[in-house]
Specification:
One of its GO terms (biological process) is protein transport. The structure is a single chain. The chain has 136 residues and is an alpha/beta fold. The chain has a domain at 61-131: Nucleotidyltransferase, domain 5 (2-Layer Sandwich), CATH 3.30.420.270. Helix content is 35%, strand content 15%. The chain has helices at residues 16-32, 51-57, 83-93, 109-121; strands at residues 61-65, 71-73, 76-78, 99-103, 128-131. The protein has a five-stranded mixed sheet, covered by helices on one side. It is elongated, with a radius of gyration of 34 Å. The mean pLDDT is 79.
Length: 136
């Protein structure tokens, strides 16, 4: 006896219920998504007028604290208590001044903290701390 193969016996998978679920999930995610407007960066470029004069005012303020406790502000030795007045003067000239405190590895912590406090009392809130490079 010969067996006949019928084409009707093939298994068919109905995809309709799966497509229904996919569309329901798609609608759910679209409805529950919150869209936020991203803020763009303000890209204002400085003008070329008086570039030499503005570059000198935008130069960062460097305060060095040596290993023996000397505080050097823009090339001159000052007391830690004088940092506040010097920062106030510099901030009055240019409010966008950046302050960099460079401390030696062996610097006295009290002196470094007094300089940081003086910078903050002078009107600058977030000084940049850096390590003083080794002299060769």
């Amino acid at each position: 006896m010969r067996r006949h193969r019928h084409d009707d016996d093939e298994a068919n998978v109905d995809m309709t219920p799966m497509l229904d679920i996919v569309f329901i999930m798609l609608i759910f995610f679209i409805v529950t998504t919150s869209f936020t407007k991203e803020d763009a960066l303000d890209m204002t470029r400085p003008s070329n007028n008086n570039t030499e004069n503005t570059e000198s005012k935008k130069a960062p303020v460097a305060i060095e604290v040596s290993d023996i406790g000397e505080v050097v502000f823009d090339g001159r030795v000052i007391m830690p208590s004088q940092v506040s007045a010097n920062i106030e003067t510099r901030m009055a000239e240019n409010p966008e001044t950046v302050v960099i405190i460079q401390a030696h590895d062996q610097a006295n912590t009290e002196v470094v903290m007094a300089v940081i406090d003086g910078v903050r009392d002078g009107g600058f809130k977030t000084p940049v701390l850096a390590r003083l490079p080794e002299k060769q």
